[in-house]
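Q: Sequence in, structure out?
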Amino acid sequence: MRKWIIGAIVVAALAGCSNTPTQDAAPVEDRAAGAATAGTGTPGATTSGATTAGVSGTATGAAAKNPLKDPASPLSKRSVYFDYDQFVVKEEFRPMVESHGRYLQANRNAKVTIQGNTDERGTREYNIALGQKRADALKKLMLLYGATEIQIETVSFGKEKPRKEGHDETSWAENRRDDIVYAGE
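A: Exactly. Output:
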């Protein structure tokens, strides 16, 4: 009788350890897609306000398999914009940054370079330092969302790579940014 009870306990314990598929076993592309949020008038904030839980069913070919290339995925958004003389990541960009951090967590072989940029105001040295602070701030946030140190490289271009030429607030706002660039793209 005692052997039968011990055998039943062992069988029950092993049954509790069985591997059954769960929602977390979904393809990496589906889990990494994250949610899009509405922009608030910041340059480059082009999300529609709709929430997407995964890759859009309307994409075809490579975009359907790669959320980095799917325009409906928050992973296709690659720029974070900053206020004048600031390097704090705004709340409106955090869901997008979280999506990239989670994608890197799920894809340990993926690597990114965060390129810090500034507007034309300020000395070359000051802008290089500010661009680096912006890139480092974004990197720290992505690390909090699951990316690893070895997956992220930071570089500052300062004012050397403007997105929009001009000497007005509209141009400067476009140029105060970090760009996320995935290796191989």
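Confidence is low (pLDDT under 50) at residues 13-41, 45-59.
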